[in-house]
Structures are given as C-alpha cells and as structure tokens.
Amino acid sequence: MTWLVTGSSGAIGRRLAADLAQRGLPLRLLDRTTPPTGLPDGAEFIEADLRDLGAVERAATGVRAIIHLAAASQEGPFATMVEHNITGTHHVLEAARRQRVPRVVLASSHHVTGLLPVGTAPDEQALAPDSFYAVSKVTGEALGRLYAHKSGLEVVAVRIGSYRTAPSEPRHRATWLSPGDATDLLHAAATRPLPERFLVVYGTSGNTERWWPAAGWDLLGYRPGDDAARHPATGVLTDRFTGGAFADHELPT
Length: 253
Ligand code: 15L
Description:
It is built from eight helices and nine strands. It has helices at residues 11-22, 53-59, 78-98, 132-151, 172-175, 179-191, 217-220, 245-248, and strands at 2-6, 27-31, 44-47, 63-68, 103-109, 154-160, 162-163, 176-177, 198-203. It is globular, with a radius of gyration of 17 Å.
C-alpha cells in the first residue's frame, strides 16, 4: 500500500522520498511545488496545498502511512503559522481519519522545548515553545494526541533537531540529525508497532553531546548511525537556550 509524504519537495522530503523509493516503497508525494530535482522512479506526485482539505483527503485515499513534513519551517507571523502549520496538520489528520489511514508521522520540532536553558533535560510535559513556529508545532502534537485518542489513528510526533548534511554550528553538536538517520527514524515511526496510539520522540542522530532524551528510540528500533562528535569541532557554544536563534528572535508582527 502507498505511503503519502507531504512537503516532499523540501530538503527532508526530497531525501526521504529518494531513500524510501530505494527501499521499494510505493510513494505518493504531495507539495505545492514540483521537486527541483525530479521524482524518484515510480513515485506519484500531487501538486496541492494543505489548506485544501478535499485535496488532502483525495491524496490520503488508499494510503497505509502519512509522513507529514509540509510546514512553514521558520519563525513568522502568527497568522502564517495558523494557516499553514496548524490548519495544515489538522487537515492531514482529518483526511487520515476519514480515509482510515492507520498511521501518521508528524514532523514536530525540538523548538517545542526551545526555551529550556541549555543543560536542562526536558520531560514530555515540559513544553516551552520558543517562537510562534514552535507554538504551531505544540498545537500539531496536541492535535495528534487528540486524533489518536478519539479516532483510532496511530500518531508519532518526531521532534526533529537540526537536519543538515553535516553539523555546521556549535549547537549542532547536540541537535544534529543526519539525512540517513532521519530516514531511518521516520521510516521506523511509520512502521513499528506501538504500545499506545500516540508517541512523541526527539529526532537527533546519536550525538554524544545531545541534550534530549532518547525515550522511544528503543521502542521504534531506531539505532542512529551518525554522531556530530565524529565531525570537526564547530566552535564554542554561546546559546543560552536549546532553541538557539529561535529563542532570541523578537515576536514577528
Ligand atoms: C527547526 O525546527 C527549523 O524548521 C529548521 O529551519 C532549523 O532551524 C532547525 O529547527 C534548527 O533549530 O536547527
């Protein structure tokens, strides 16, 4: 059965789609723009906007898992976050409920705890969003939990760290998520049996200096292959908060 990937033309989506296609998975890719690098062999592409619930529902027909990556991925005005991230995530979950898609993986963000000072180990309750963007991701997690409870969907929210080909700033020693590890983690989140219908995990590589717990990794069978410590040093950490620059931005108007 088909897998649906939203935001498939973005950085994570393009690499994920290529990797999943290589694993032989039938893919339906959804984005507002066609991928600049072309489609993986055999993948179907749907040009659609997540604000259009009907289009999202059609895309979810006959799907076994949705990996929902599409989002405004930087800080921006509150209205933009509501329109694209909160409404977009609601539409994905609602489409999954209507089309009886068994599993949805939500790309959340470590910024949901970005106002915790560096060195603080968060637990699942310790939400501290560092931006309007992070508030939209908190809301996405809340919607995921609600739909898992009320509709029988299984939902895994992955709090993605810093997705980069290689660490490039001091905080990436803790926050880095390599492309290969991202594919492994998102694939596991879409397939592994879950003890409960809702799960939240942090998404980083196996960084020796990581700040966040690995809770849920064993459950998903996620064994990261990369560690930022194996890359050249990136300088001295000056960030006070785990969210880095997001925590220092003024609120946009
Ligand atoms: C995120 O969640 C953002 O979407 C991305 O643009 C990066 O800035 C990343 O976090 C990060 O903090 O490195």
